[in-house]
Amino acid sequence: MEGKKIFWLVGEASGDLHASLVMRALNAELPGLQHIGIGGTRMQAEGLKSLFPFARFNVMGFVEVLRHLGFFLKVQNRVKRLLKDERPDLAILVDYPGLNLRIAALADELRVPVLYFICPQFWAWKHERVHKLRASVKHVACILPFEKELLDIHNVSATYVGHPIAEEVSLELSREEFAVFYGLDPAKQWLGFLPGSRDVEIRRMLPVFLEAARLFDPDRFEFLFSKARTVNHFLYMDLLHSSSLQRSCIIDGYHYEMMKYCDFIVSTSGTATLETAFIGTPLVICYKASPISYQLGKHFIRVKHIGLPNIILDDDILPELIQSGLTPTAVKDAVLGILDDPARLAEIKQQLSLLRTILAEKRTSEQMLNLVKNLLGIEV
Fold first, then answer.
1. What is d(CA 270, CA 173) in angstroms, rounded to the nearest whole number?
2. In the chain, N or C: fewer CB atoms in 10 Å?
């Protein structure tokens, strides 16, 4: 495979993780592949030659993207030159549709075939994106089971490849070992908070979560707060120290263990909600954006639910607290309303078991390997 070159574009930490899993499988099966483009530390560890600092892409929301428009135009121009000058054999674009759909169009113009991994959520909002996929993308690799059927309706070539978290989730510590490592009381119930992986999420969500934790009985609960490596350490710790929460435990590693061993999770909407649901821990899904971003999004969003577990199950099995509905008191009521209701708790756990079965139906790395080999003209 010496000389075959793949261009990658990933803009978020979750995409970096998902893509690195695929890269590992490709490198094992097809040694000699060259990887160039945009990605994080996990992809770089698998051999990606990255063009820009990955942290620059960690923005979200209408207003936030507008503030960084100059940077994204620079990225687009640099990628266009690369596609024209180096002519990669394949472009694999991962999620991040605001930029990646524009790059797909550029690649198509330059006759570089495009594999779109993790389909843009056109079924939720910006429905016109499905037409862009049909116009510019050779094939779409879907990670949600209902997406292929929707793409088939619009004559977009697609394959359901399973969800990568089925391969990514793994545990290194038992509950007892985790408790010792972080100094937790194993006799208490553990309440975990996942405020997000971006600084803008931390600013909006962490103060609400800290205030919510104050409303719970500290004799009953241990309070665990996840701290992603992608967030600013000083920002996170300043917010933590400015709160009046007497006792909390910062989890800056072993996040899957935290999701597994907590009795309940309070999570910002995103990949973490699906990971937690896949692991089987009940949770409440929280979302808060800037007022302008929220009003614009509210106008266009088509789906009944905002949380991926609820969307996949097509049910409001998990509580969702959105914008003005996200208050410390609402968090407390949602958590205790489930933990103190054994029948409802059992029903949620049963539904999360079904979700796990759905997402683990296929191995994403194997499915993606076959798609890439096919697009590179290699016999599968």
1. 25
2. C
Tens of pLDDT along 237-262?
999 998 878 789 999 999 999 999 99
Q: How far apart are alpha carbons 317 and 352 in whole angstroms?
A: 9
- Residue 81: phi and psi, rounded to 5, are -65, -40
My answer on whether 108 and 251 are in the same domain is no
380 found inside a domain: no
Q: Which two tokens stand for residue 7?
A: 């261009």
CA 249 from chain centre, in angstroms, equals: 24
Residue 254 φ then ψ, to 5°: 55, 45
Exposed/middle/buried for residue 118 (C-beta within 10 Å: 0-12, 13-18, 19+): buried
Distance (Å, whole) CA 5 – CA 34? 5
**CA 64: distance to chain centroid?**
18
Predicted model pTM: 0.84
Judge contact between 136 and 129, C-beta under 8 A.
no
> At which residue do the structure tokens 């191995």 appear?
363
227 and 122, same domain (yes or no): no
Same domain as 288, residue 303? yes
Residue found by looking up tokens 């968090």 in the block:
331
The Cα-based distances of 179 to 50, 60, 215, 261 in angstroms read 38, 34, 23, 9
Identify the domain containing residue 23 by its residue range. 5-162+362-375
